[in-house]
Design a protein that fits this description.
The structure is a homotetramer.
Chain A lengths: L4 E6 L3 H12 L4 E7 L3 H10 L4 E3 L2 H7 L5 E4 L3 H13 L3 E5 L6 H17 L5 E4 L6 H11 L6 E11 L5 H9 L2 H17 L5 E9 L14 E8 L3 E11 L6 E6 L3 E4 L8 E5 L2 E4 L5 H22 L7 H20 L3 E3 L5 E2 L7
Parallel strand pairs in A: 1-2, 1-4, 2-3, 4-5, 5-6, 7-10
Antiparallel strand pairs in A: 7-11, 8-9, 8-15, 9-10, 11-12, 13-14, 15-16
Chain lengths: ~350, ~350, ~350, ~350
Amino acid sequence: MSRKLKIGIAGLGRMGARHANHFNALTPRAELIAACSPAPHELEWAATNLPDVRTYSSFDEMLENETALEAVVIASITAAHAEQAIKAMQKGLHVLCEKPLSIDAEISQTVVDTYAKSIKQYPSQKVMCGFSRRFDASYQDAYAKTRSGLIGRPTIFRSQTCDKRDPSGFFINFAASSGGIFVDCSVHDIDLALWFLGEDSVIKSISAVGVSAVSPGLDAHNDRDNAVGFVEFWGGKIAYFYTCRMMAAGQEDSTEIIGTEGKLTVNMQPQMNLVSIYESTGIRKEIPQNYYDRFREALVNEANEFVACCLDDKPLPLKLSGAVSAVRIAHALQESMISGKKIDFDEAGTRIVPTLNGH
Amino acid sequence: MSRKLKIGIAGLGRMGARHANHFNALTPRAELIAACSPAPHELEWAATNLPDVRTYSSFDEMLENETALEAVVIASITAAHAEQAIKAMQKGLHVLCEKPLSIDAEISQTVVDTYAKSIKQYPSQKVMCGFSRRFDASYQDAYAKTRSGLIGRPTIFRSQTCDKRDPSGFFINFAASSGGIFVDCSVHDIDLALWFLGEDSVIKSISAVGVSAVSPGLDAHNDRDNAVGFVEFWGGKIAYFYTCRMMAAGQEDSTEIIGTEGKLTVNMQPQMNLVSIYESTGIRKEIPQNYYDRFREALVNEANEFVACCLDDKPLPLKLSGAVSAVRIAHALQESMISGKKIDFDEAGTRIVPTLNGH
Amino acid sequence: MSRKLKIGIAGLGRMGARHANHFNALTPRAELIAACSPAPHELEWAATNLPDVRTYSSFDEMLENETALEAVVIASITAAHAEQAIKAMQKGLHVLCEKPLSIDAEISQTVVDTYAKSIKQYPSQKVMCGFSRRFDASYQDAYAKTRSGLIGRPTIFRSQTCDKRDPSGFFINFAASSGGIFVDCSVHDIDLALWFLGEDSVIKSISAVGVSAVSPGLDAHNDRDNAVGFVEFWGGKIAYFYTCRMMAAGQEDSTEIIGTEGKLTVNMQPQMNLVSIYESTGIRKEIPQNYYDRFREALVNEANEFVACCLDDKPLPLKLSGAVSAVRIAHALQESMISGKKIDFDEAGTRIVPTLNGH
Amino acid sequence: MSRKLKIGIAGLGRMGARHANHFNALTPRAELIAACSPAPHELEWAATNLPDVRTYSSFDEMLENETALEAVVIASITAAHAEQAIKAMQKGLHVLCEKPLSIDAEISQTVVDTYAKSIKQYPSQKVMCGFSRRFDASYQDAYAKTRSGLIGRPTIFRSQTCDKRDPSGFFINFAASSGGIFVDCSVHDIDLALWFLGEDSVIKSISAVGVSAVSPGLDAHNDRDNAVGFVEFWGGKIAYFYTCRMMAAGQEDSTEIIGTEGKLTVNMQPQMNLVSIYESTGIRKEIPQNYYDRFREALVNEANEFVACCLDDKPLPLKLSGAVSAVRIAHALQESMISGKKIDFDEAGTRIVPTLNGH
């Protein structure tokens, strides 16, 4: 029972360092034994903050040397996710990979395909893409209530990922590699939509629009800083999304699940904590300033649940294939936003290509 | 059905002008025909704002000349309330008197006694002291729910009247004639306590403390700008109160009714309207800045209900004697706050005077 | 100053009776002198509730006989709005017409055109289409704050009109004449979008989807009980809408205005009043059950402001042409929802008809 | 840096098991090496849930055998707290003792006195009484804001500890040893009052009342299930408290800190998480059902901060003497509630004994 899962982590950047701290200190059944990063300052950070963890400047080297390794957490740059995940799988390791597997849906699919093969060889192998919001206590409560039938049949799903405005212009530089705002931000909302409306939901149509309100430079990258889109599913279900990078107050990630008999909302009034401030201008609540402020506990929970699934050989709470579905939808939203065209799909979910006679 | 009650108003100061507007324009079954005030600028206000209303510089003159008058609304200075109410009653008129009848409980009692005699002569006569909070839609809803048994037996009652800090020092000048903070402010909360816990509740003990946090000048008037007190009733019921004159954000009048099976709250989160403001410092709600911002609708409602009771000869929703009970309790709280002594009452509600051997 | 505007009302159904009460009792500067309805039970209602008002079974008759009439309020069935408005205008009367002028945009336009001519003959004539939400105190506050620059440049507008589920099936029967859910419900949100984003906003594209989740019978009328749509405007502004007829809790009409420097929300947490109920299942707030619960004060405010504009010859707060714009957009959303096609417009706002070579 | 503090725990009941889990799994810098309990079923629980921890049936035995021990966590029955704390101190161990040190203020004082002597021998020794609420993120935020001057001078402090009604009657049986509702529940609020108003605040008077609304059996133990009390401090500061054991909805522990320039509130609207439930009866929020639901994170935080202070020889965030002050005040409130008498203190904080001539 007190055996600990031996874990290595790839990438010690902003998210990587958080994961490293979680697995090192807040995941009692895990033991972080190794970490790798090509960035010298990240390795320095590890030397100070993870003194008991061996460090490497390359992923391959870590895999080669750490023969006791049982699982890897991949929090490197997105472009490295798929390759590292595949290499780790081929060694029989469990994998927790930060989202997305890749901003490219086809490459994402290869990760899923590799896992499908790998699991035949390693039947207990666990590979999960980290959609952290699924591990948030409020989303889990809303999901349990939805499953219990409290709101009847879930029909309309609204969700938004809205970041506080970052005047540093980080997003513009990041735009080239982010896959776009729907892929980078809304992919969380899309994953939630599939969770609540059914992972087997088949897309009927997609339409989106966007504007660059405060970062006109995004247009050059075929990206926007505000975007609205909807996804219609066969069988009478709709998900619609808003995402933005210019919120004044902070991180505003909220969700509504509307069913035939009731509705559930998550975080309709963001709040940092339980304090209210009464001052001459009114009553004020501070709110989370970033994703981590809001979802730190979810990430810790994710770490613990992943480890428990590996150690106890339990089924993972989310399927790897969902990560591909979410990215595919995100890409279609991004495409629709840029092209200005609605995209239709047949009942098998296959895209309908418009012909000369219209679609 | 379309007959209108002919009304005269005494006093056109801050509250008087509001009442005049309500009876003139927002009480369809009333007709404001006359108004009086000893203050020339108030009569000028009336000339402009109530052009169809005859004005007088004295109450007696108004009563003498306006032979068609059916009811008077008394919103003059507190010291004039009792005398004017008694004079109007003696003419057989209906009376709506602003609270308090008097800051002196004995004088208040004479108004009640006069009414008890007068109603024998004029059986349809209505005399009401305007505890406006009873006409607020939220308090009425809470009361109906309490009566329905929703929270079991009401046991603990908490209520506060908290004014926005007024840097003009108005309260200090007013302290000499206000009767003190419990009489001026908490009397509303005390009236509500009697309403929710039972008008027949018998006091067992009273204890209060106060501080002058921002207006040290109040001490000279035996008053304070913050006060806390409780009233224990025989039969296992407690009301406790907080009142203050230094709130930063605005008017904060909130109430909790705690029963053996549930709890109701009124206005635990003050708000001016349904708007929320998201800005770099968080999410902000503006709140009412004064009593009128919060209770304007209640006052209009009071005017309409009073008129309906007069025209339709229906029982008034609150008993005049309650106004005396509330003032008596307010005085005892004020006394306890100043003397630093708890005051005890026997099961008949008679004050127990401590003897040399203790009480 | 105390002159009263003489008003006649057409239609005494659900909304008509409310308007009649407002103009009769809660609009001090108005005098309701006449009312008409072809429905005998509505005239009976008037005989009881509006005893001082003369009644007619036809609109023409009312106009002919009531020579003192200065203004009419049109609250008859939608199909009669345009004709009655035009007839009244031609008599030189002021007109307050319930929304929509017509479910047909071309007919709506004829009302606007008639007014353009009529006002040359009667320069003080006021004709307004009753978008009541503009008279709600919270929306007015949000609008003033937006105008003041508090949120920078308004960019994204989200609004929803969501009705409580009505198990009687009323909506299905009404679907044939309602113009559809976007025309019947979202027209309010569209009007608000134009108000906040600018009345001169030019549409770039429209896309919508819908489902019939609880009223499958609506499909036969080309209608749905849940619909999501967006309107993209030239110049980098987006409005998106949700509307539904199956809310469990009650009326949920909420709005967000997202600007480059901040955000305002209206009614993100619906509430009936300021009471909270604490019981074994948690803390509960009751919410408005229908449009009137939520917007009664706005309707009264609308009546008073309309009357003031007529009596004082002030400009109306909203332009009649806006009513046509809102209906045109609503129709395009409805069309897009039914056809499954996105609709594009050029920079002049002219619809682009897709050609054989695609659009 | 990665050295871990070796810890033993005394008591594995409800709170003890929680502490054991926190120190075992959620306090990375601690190593729980031993546990003791006289209760066989608690030791069985440890065998299953703390397999790596050595267990003992007596505290003395644990202390004797575990020579590597550096700190003990005392979560045994209240009556054992003081003796165990003193024994551990005498061995030079760090001590984290659950509140209260004792329900008897004099015994509590002996713990403080022992520490005062012990620290001369062991200058790095840390002894803390676990007022867990001080480690809650919201209270810490409110405290930091208060210290920063945001609300001016803190003047009025209101706080309540309200438990969900427990129909099992547990409290009645517990009443005999709990010290009473003020000692058992309000001691947290009192400690917070001293924190926010100043640890050096000197009591001027105390008055309290209570009722047994749902558990009449409490009267036999000189206890109540609802109690209200206030503490007046010299220098113009007041704290007032409400505590109850019959809340319908759940745990409602809320606090207001009112200063001369503003106000802060903590948890004025309890909530379990960020989910809202929309159903036919309105909008509902679930709330914490017990103290642990609400303060789990605070307890984990407390464990980590205590360990950090021990390992890094940092000053503890709260003084041991405060635990005695809080218990003394709680006792005086309880006494006042039972005797029905107000208790006065002179400017040195010495109780004034009423004489034959009154006080």
